[in-house]
Amino acid sequence: MIEITDTIAIDEAEIEETFIRAGGPGGQNVNKVASAVQLRFDARHSPSLPERVRERLEVIAGSKLTKDGVIVISASRFRTQEANRRDALDRLVEMIQEAAREPKPRKRTRPTLASKKRRIESKVKRGRVKRRRSGPIDPDG
Known about the structure:
The protein has 4 helices and 5 strands. The chain is an alpha+beta fold.
C-alpha cells in the first residue's frame, strides 16, 4: 500500500508502469536502456479514492488525464529506471494529496465605497475620451 494521507492509501496493483527509452543525457547508454517510466493510474475506477477526492483529482490532472479517467505520468528526468520510477510515483502522490485537501470556501465580500467611486471615475473618464474622438459637432445639423 502506498500511503497518501492518514485516511487514503492506494494499492500498488492499481498502478501500472511501463518502461520506455528516454532521450536526454546518458550518452550511448540512452540508446540501449529503457530508463524512462510511464506510470498509469485509473483514477476514475479506483476503489481507494473517495468520490470528492476523485472529482478534484480529475480536474487537477488536466492534460495528464485520458478520456477513460486514467492518469498518465511520464518521467525521464533521471538516468536510472529506479530514480524515474520514484519521481513518477512521487508526482502521483503529490497530485492525490493536493486533491485530498479540502478547498477553502470563498467568503463573499462587498466592494468598499472608495473602490466603487474609483470604478465610476474611470468609467466617466473613459466616456469623455470616447466622446472627444467623435470629432467636432456640426452646428448646422
